[in-house]
Amino acid sequence: MSDKVLSQFKPETHEENTIDCSRRLKFGIIGTGWIAESHVEALKQMPDVDIVAGTDLIPGKAEAFFKRYGVENVRLYPSHKEMLEAETDLDAVCVCTYNKTHAECTIDALNKGLHVLLEKPMCVTTQEALDIVRAEKKSGKILSLGFQPRMDENMKMIKKVVDSGELGRIYYIQTGGGRRHGIPGSTFIEEKTAGIGALGDIGCYSLDMVLNAIGYPKPLTVSGYRSNYLGTDPEFNTPEDAARFDVDDFAAAFIRLEGGIILDFRIAWAMHLDTPGDTIIMGTKASLRIPSTECWNGSIGGPMKMYKDVAGLPVEFEFPMYPQTDNGQGIFYKKLRSFIDAIKENGTAPVPSSQILYNQAIIDGIVQSAKAGKEVEIHLEEI
């Protein structure tokens, strides 16, 4: 036995590959744009998955996509409806289309009896979200939402801290963040395809981080604001993109949640500032500060800090960051793997629609409040 092993205080553990390949799942990809690249890269690592079908509205795009990623023998279709009609033995689909078609594609797939991994944001409106949940319940299939930050160990620690009771009763939360220069292009910046801008693209992530940590209480009211001053500025954005930019590049809101909790939210694709603020969770016993991040697509922006009184004195301490120990597979792989395992084990959705319905209701509430110029109530029908 080597000195290296003897010097360890704990025995080294090794994760064994226990994936059961006796049952293979057949996947279809709806939409072959940018986000579909990550889906296919992850699915190619799954020994129990076959990508057998794909579709995109743009002629030739799907064919070029699968050729680029070396996925062979994929049957291609000009629309998701034609694919769902022809492919009678699919198990699941990944919905990777632009926001405005999320609801239609997801509902159609669920109605065909397929499991669905739906990319974020869930959709655009609260009504669409309600229709999706109804279709899911009717189908009896698994619908999971594409919030891969949930798979990050540092993100999980936020919920562990809240669940531990160390913070006491939560009464105020500030969250948001965003980018100084980070406006995407393509279908992200037009209302006809995206419906919503930074609010849906990265705002849904920051909302999920804190709402998941506190158990997703029901939203009651929203006072919201949206703007797109920088996205439409040809001196800030490219002239071509500025001319067609008609979604939000900044949004903010004051949200009242069940349980007397206040949520102060702000998100940006672009701003003349490094950050609009860290995430703060304030409780009656202690508070937690989570450093802001530009991406909102992975881990937190740095080590978290807790502030509390000990023996009558104010103290603070820092949580160490969890290292990446995923053998290079990453949280996107874990998102797909958790969805596949839920299907094969007759489990439940890793990121359930019942939670993200509230996320979507807040986003839509911000849109409606910004249009009305006043606070609005959030009404959710029973499903």
TrEMBL record:
<keyword id="KW-0560">Oxidoreductase</keyword>
<dbReference type="Pfam" id="PF01408">
    <property type="entry name" value="GFO_IDH_MocA"/>
</dbReference>
<dbReference type="GO" id="GO:0016491">
    <property type="term" value="F:oxidoreductase activity"/>
</dbReference>
<dbReference type="InterPro" id="IPR036291">
    <property type="entry name" value="NAD(P)-bd_dom_sf"/>
</dbReference>
<feature type="domain" description="Gfo/Idh/MocA-like oxidoreductase N-terminal">
    <location>
        <begin position="25"/>
        <end position="147"/>
    </location>
</feature>
<dbReference type="InterPro" id="IPR050463">
    <property type="entry name" value="Gfo/Idh/MocA_oxidrdct_glycsds"/>
</dbReference>
<dbReference type="InterPro" id="IPR000683">
    <property type="entry name" value="Gfo/Idh/MocA-like_OxRdtase_N"/>
</dbReference>
<protein>
    <submittedName>
        <fullName>Putative oxidoreductase YcjS</fullName>
        <ecNumber>1.-.-.-</ecNumber>
    </submittedName>
</protein>
<dbReference type="InterPro" id="IPR055170">
    <property type="entry name" value="GFO_IDH_MocA-like_dom"/>
</dbReference>
<feature type="domain" description="GFO/IDH/MocA-like oxidoreductase">
    <location>
        <begin position="157"/>
        <end position="289"/>
    </location>
</feature>
<dbReference type="GO" id="GO:0000166">
    <property type="term" value="F:nucleotide binding"/>
</dbReference>
<dbReference type="Pfam" id="PF22725">
    <property type="entry name" value="GFO_IDH_MocA_C3"/>
</dbReference>
